[in-house]
Amino acid sequence: MGAYILRRLLLIIPTLLGIMIVNFTLTQFVPGGPIEQVIAQLEGGGDVFEGISGGSGDAAGAAETDAYTGSRGLPPEFIAELEREFGFDKPPLERFLNMMWNYIRFDFGDSYFRSIGVLELVLEKMPVSITLGLWSTLIAYLVSIPLGIRKAVNDGSRFDTWTSALIIVAYAIPGFLFAILLLVLFAGGSYFQIFPLRGLTGDNFEDLSLLGKIGDYFWHITLPVLASTISAFATLTLLTKNSFLDEIKKQYVVTARAKGLKDSSVLYGHVFRNAMLIVIAGFPSVFIGVFFGGSLIIETIFSLDGLGRLGFEAAVARDYPVIFGTLFFFGLIGLVVGILSDLMYVLVDPRIDFETREG
Hints:
Keywords: Cell inner membrane, Cell membrane, Membrane, Transmembrane, Transmembrane helix, Transport. Residues 126-345 form the ABC transmembrane type-1 domain. The chain is mainly α and 359 residues long. The chain contains 19 helices and no strands. The protein has two domains: 32-107, no CATH class; 119-358, Orthogonal Bundle (MetI-like fold). It has helices spanning 2-27, 34-43, 48-54, 57-65, 76-86, 92-104, 118-153, 158-172, 175-186, 210-229, 232-248, 251-258, 263-275, 277-281, 283-293, 296-301, 307-317, 320-348, 354-358. The two termini are 12 Å apart.
């Protein structure tokens, strides 16, 4: 197992390097870089994309005489200073190599437009994403696993049919639509004022007791967590049900029942470990997917300032240090979590040997 883990760790290097090369190369062909953003704000206070999409003959003529759209009237010295400040006075290859050297040392630099380090910015937004990712994953597992087991035991029954219908309906409802419905019903819309409308904590959070802080935290996260969890039930419940059905039909279950073992003993003493292998071992990847995915729309609807909004705002503003820094950091974590998922398989079922399978 040690040799397998070492090989996987070594594969992280070329994989992460490939991710960074592809994304860095793509940004070289995307219009509206950070310098153009600054110029657009200085000249008109608008967005750089207005100038790019204008497509007039005058703009085309200006593009022939100036490297940056909308930079007429600004002295060349100012443009050159902007290039030096953002590092664009160097060739792309040199910029990429410098960036990767800094990232290897976990120096992610500072945001172009926020006057704060990228790592500090990510840590500042992380509580929101951890809240949505962790609680959504835990609730999905706590509900879906028992429900999936019961559906497998009662396969084809009325309970199985009705719960399947409800799960499919829930899966079909977009998360943002369900979030709006929750707001309208329970957050001061047209019906009830039970939960707060926005934020992760209340304005008086620091003045509350420990129990008060815990209660205030859960009071605020109830609606956004429900909205981000609604679609996760279907996949996990059906995965659990189908996994148990496959195991229940195997010969060792028939043999155990023939020996006179109770159904509960057969189900939880023999079937459970084998059936739950895929479900439990996938927990790290499921959590990291929800954590990184950070629903932008859910965060926007509930006024939560998390990683989803950070990524979107960085992409719109062409804040390259934030874009590439978070891409490297999260890409590295995602690759490591892939290894942890394999270790979870071995932990759940020690009979699995990845080295033997590779051989």
